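Colleagues,

For the teaching module next term, I've prepared a clean inverse folding example: a structure given as tokens, and then the sequence designed for it. I'd like students to try predicting residues themselves before seeing the answer, so please don't circulate the second half yet.
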């Protein structure tokens, strides 16, 4: 579904250049439900905005289904956004209309695109667990319920790819679990590919594959050891916690580059050079030997 290779995004303003993505590689399979984690400023939202067609990449390649998002024309981009992607943001509910019912809110974007499918709108609200509340006005719903209306709306255009940026950022743990359950169900039942960007490692720990971004590059991949395991409510406060159920792998790109964590380098005082040895089984990186490290 998604293939990024050497993806670069540079933001330019007057005399400043920020390299938000510096040659990122990422593959997401059709029908996958995965999460992207990373510290603030690592490039997560930049990546999501590019995948959603809201921002243009600077270089590299990024393919979503049949679409090449580097070469796509403006007209095609409009079509891509309308037909291929659905978006969920942390404060999506803010864009909803409080004086309309949940159902009317879901029908609104359908109306704007020219075709209201009431049966499908109802089905969407049923999928997100709001069957009983679809005729309630939005202001009568809780924050978590409103976020679920937003999820229903994101599926109005029957997207193949759902992009969620911090979807549980402003809800409590129980609602966060509920929302994750909805994603899992939608992924299974309608086969929509879902990419979740989050700071929340507890949430990330509930999907089979988590990719960590560091400094605009994919650095580590976490794969669930037993994908059939029912996700528990365990707290994953850091990447070590994530490893309770996931195996961590360093990402090696096509030309053999990998990122060594900064803390490892500073612990050994490795700056711009290192020595590397292969002992038949392991690759060992040490401070430069000839320089006395
Ligand atoms: N429009 C912009 N103009 C200039 N720099 C930008 C712009 N958008 C993002 N950046 C910079 O690009 C880098 C990556 O930002 P991005 O928002 O993608 O990070 P993030 O991982 O999503 O962070 P957060 O978790 O805080 O949202 C940061 O250094 C940020 O300051």
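(Answer key — instructors only)
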């Amino acid at each position: 579904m998604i293939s990024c290779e050497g993806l670069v995004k540079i933001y330019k303003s007057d005399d400043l250049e920020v390299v938000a993505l510096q040659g990122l590689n990422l593959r997401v399979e059709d029908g996958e439900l995965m999460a992207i984690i990373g510290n603030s400023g690592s490039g997560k939202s930049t990546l999501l905005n590019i995948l959603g067609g809201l921002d243009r990449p600077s270089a590299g390649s990024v393919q979503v289904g049949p679409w090449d998002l580097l070469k796509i024309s403006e007209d095609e981009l409009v079509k891509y956004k309308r037909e291929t992607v659905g978006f969920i943001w942390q404060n999506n509910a803010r864009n909803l209309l409080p004086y309309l019912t949940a159902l009317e809110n879901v029908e609104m974007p359908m109306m704007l695109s020219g075709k209201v499918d009431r049966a499908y709108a109802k089905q969407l609200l049923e999928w997100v667990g709001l069957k009983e509340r679809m005729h309630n006005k939005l202001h009568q719903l809780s924050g978590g319920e409103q976020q679920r209306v937003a999820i229903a709306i994101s599926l109005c255009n029957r997207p193949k790819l759902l992009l969620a940026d911090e979807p549980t950022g402003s809800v409590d743990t129980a609602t966060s679990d509920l929302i994750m359950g909805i994603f899992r169900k939608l992924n299974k039942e309608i086969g929509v590919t879902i990419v979740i960007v989050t700071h929340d490692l507890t949430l990330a720990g509930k999907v089979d594959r988590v990719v960590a971004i560091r400094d605009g590059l994919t650095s580590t991949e976490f794969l669930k050891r037993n994908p059939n395991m029912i996700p528990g409510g365990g707290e994953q406060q850091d990447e070590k916690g994530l490893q309770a159920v996931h195996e961590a792998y360093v990402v090696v790109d096509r030309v053999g580059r990998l990122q060594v964590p900064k803390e490892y380098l500073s612990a050994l005082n490795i700056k711009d050079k290192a020595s590397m040895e292969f002992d038949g089984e392991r690759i060992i990186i040490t401070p430069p030997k000839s320089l006395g490290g």
